[in-house]
Amino acid sequence: MQHRVFFWFTLPTLTAMVLFIALPIVSVFVQSLHIDHERVIVISESCGPFGCTQTTSVDTEANKKLREEKPLGRYNGLATYTNRSHLAFKEIGIAWSSTKNWSQFFSKALNLPFYKALAFTLTYTLVVTPFVLVLGLAIAVGVNNLSNRIKGPTIFVSLLPMMVTPLVGSLILFWMVDGDGIIGATLQLLFDDSSLSLKASPTLTWMMLIVYGIWHILPFSFIVFYAGLQTVPSETLEAAMIDGASKWQRVIYVIVPHLMPLVVFVTLILLMDNFRVFEPIVGFSAEAHAQSLSWIIFKDLRESANPLYGSAGATSMMTIIGVAILLTPVLIRTKRDFKQRSV
Amino acid sequence: MSGVTEFEPILPVRTILCSEGRETPIWTLNINKEDITVKLKTFVFAVMTIAGGTVAPIGSSAFADCGPSGQSIRILASDFPAIHAVAGTAEAQCGGAAAEFARNHTTEAREIMNAALTTNPAEYTSVIVANSTLTQLMNDGLVRPLNDLVDRYGSHLKSHQLITIDGNVMAVAFMANSQHLFSRTDILEKAGVDGIPATYDEILAAAEKIRAAGIMEYPIVMNMKVGWNVGEVFNTIYLAHGGEFFKPGSAEPNINNDLALAALGVMKALAGYAHPDHLTQASNETQGLWEAGQAALGYMWGSRGGVILDGEGSTEDVTSNTVLSSAPTVTGGSIPGATLWWDGITIANNVSDAEAEATFAALVGAMTPGMVAKHNDDAVWLIDGFKPGPAAAGVSATATGGAKSYPMIPYIGLMHNALGAELVDFLKGTESAEQALADVVAAYVTAAKEKGFLN
User: Fold this and answer.
1) Structural domain boundaries of chain B?
2) Model confidence at B10: pLDDT above 80
3) H or E stretch including A123?
4) CA atoms B314, A282, A200, B263: torsion sign
5) Do A50 and B399 touch (CB under 8 A)?
6) Span B318-334, mean pLDDT?
């Protein structure tokens, strides 16, 4: 293809990508470098149904002027990135110099909000992704071997978890795992422990979120692999059978290599999806034991009466960087494959 | 503290939800309730029933002074019966005189109000707010002083309804709410507890007796959900200990002290008798446990009193033995551990004076004994003519006992947030109280610097 033709073909896509992806990211980045103007605080008296008290309020006139001059706020450089709510260089430094061994250091570091969230986010991503890949493939192979009559209904049922909105799905499960819910009560009965609570223990909460994550995203990998299975050449399979390959060997040596490009694709999507885990944490009210990077962004924007735009921006940028780091090995592999093929 | 004397034992009962700081998880609310936008242009003298059963009096508009006619009145408010009562009555009385009367009742009001009032002209002419949300609007200078309008249209308002900051009336309150104690007298009796506990120590002793008697393993319920709720529990206990959140006149935190350590001690002791899932429980869950008869001592919102005492969702055993009383004090102390809340109206800055006047006239015109008589049980009204019902006892006793009101300080939201996030490790038992308070201070200072309150 000529370069000119290529350019005109991709121009609409490129324009849309710049407008809707690149520019918003740049804007978030610029915002993350700024913090609010200094507030002029005045002491005042406030009276209401419950009496009068001395209080403070913001001098809005003075503030308005500052804001009109510089709507973005004060330039703060990368200080937001390094403060306690994010990378916490200072606190990490103190933790490093004041602790004697790794476990002490980690317990101090994991007391900081960003690292606490990062720990769960990474664990979630690195556990859910391989499980979903392997189980998705297993289900796809299983369904593919079913007789045609029950294939359709089975596929439909298998897709159900994905059709439920994550927030609604997790809310439903949240009530089911309650001590009075069907799953919670059954577990208590099985383990003969009436105080067993999936919501009260950090370990069980993490397991619950991870199991939910696998359940929810599994249909995606299943349906992609199932589609891929339809393209496996029957000649190769027959040849393998004639060579005496067992079912298992056919899967490992014929089907999986054939689906490898799909595996890479699904891995990419899963890594991105899982790294921004959010809804289950809200749905399961799991904030006490598990927080993710996306949840921190949500908290900065929603939980406070005054949204912390700079903080949210900084966490967003670091989430993007985190995704990029996770994807790098997969992308490098893809590039290598591509080069080999084009040789 | 000064307070409270003005509206004495009046308070009462059967509210549903007020001030609603964050009683319920935000996302679930979205699912449970719809935003209700009602636009009615010309139904004067009409009887209207709007979500929640607000019925406006026929023909009452004949008596209401609606201010300049032909104006556009646009109200943003939270979504519970008391607010429907006020806004619905205003619409029935003055909807005809206005060119447009629009109401947006949404539990998301708090999240959208600053953006909605920042535009010029503002999206709404009035927002119905509570203590904390008024501060949120005032921080950005989005609401106007109401002194002139009060002079012209507010002769029937009581002085305690006027929320005054440095002499400027910034809001007009119409109802109150607070947390307080709920007790099951039958269970207390069975466990051999005399009377209703009045202090934290008595609550703990009673809980221990109930547990020891084998009646309940977890007799206490309270809203300890991580975030706003758990922060609010600390606020109430800290205030009962006589604590202050900030150094006087500044945004410097003042919670790293012995009073806060004592408050945390009480909090953890109480949590030890609460359901193991307490860090996931807010109002809906605690109310559910109470109505299911699984708790004997509750520390919940007054606005839940009416709902718990009504015949729905519970058994006769529970409702007939539930007694509402003042929030507890510390032993030897006198301040009930609660925060008092009010809900009231504000008028936007960025609207024309005529619109502001018409909106104010319509809303305060609804704050009458007639409206209260029709909706007596919907709230703890601060308006003349309110007759406290049986469920009012708790809020009433808490307010008259001298509980503090929720601080109207520009940076209290940041502090509340830091408390809600950083106390959790202590409550889980993975961190010392000292470390938790140090974390709260660090988190607060980081946020306050970003918002420009500290350097």
Assistant:
1) 17-176+343-388, 179-337+411-450
2) no
3) helix A113-144
4) negative
5) yes
6) 93
